[in-house]
Amino acid sequence: MCAWGAQGGRHLCVYVAPAGTLGHMEGRALVVDDDPEVLAALAQLLEDWGLSVMAASDGNAALRLVSIHGTPDAVVTDFRLPEGETGLEVLRRLRAVAPAFRGVVLSGDIGPDEALEVQRSGYALLLKPVSASRLRSAVAGLLDSGG
């Protein structure tokens, strides 16, 4: 399954294993991405794995969802978001109000200094395009680490 960005550039392409070949996951996830197709694809993928998913297009929407529905177990966010906001900033804002979650940042466009900042902040970084198995492994690691 591939999701295409507004300018026609491929932002996310994941290859899904046949049903029944992967174990079921449990937990709540928050996905943040400003590209509606990528957001929908990521949310669907995580739901297919058994997670309850909240989806937000930016940091403000993510904070609203957390204030209404509570802290997710895992947050998957794109690095580049609207109006110059980054996924790392979203994670920091969320951490201030909901400290008990783990996060992973996805990016197809990140510089070495930004990548180092993400990793120094304690979050995983996956470069796009990311395979479903690699994303699944990262999300499983977030859930297993328990906050």
CATH architect. name: 3-Layer(aba) Sandwich
| Number of helices in the DSSP assignment | 5
Based on DSSP secondary structure assignment, what is the total number of beta strands?
7
- The CATH superfamily bears the name Response regulator
Q: How would you describe the shape?
A: globular
Please bin the fraction of helical residues.
25-40%
User: What is the terminal separation in angstroms?
Assistant: 30 Å
| CATH level-3 fold name | Rossmann fold
How many domain modules? Answer: 1
Radius of gyration: 14 Å
If you average the pLDDT, what whole number results?
A: 87
Coarse structural class? alpha/beta
Biggest β-sheet description: 5 strands, parallel
Which spans have pLDDT < 50 for at least 5 consecutive residues? 1-21
The top-level CATH class is Alpha Beta
Helix and strand pattern: EEEHEHEHEHEH
Provide the β-strand percentage band: 15-25%
With strands numbered from the N-terminus, the spatial order across the biggest sheet is 4-3-5-6-7
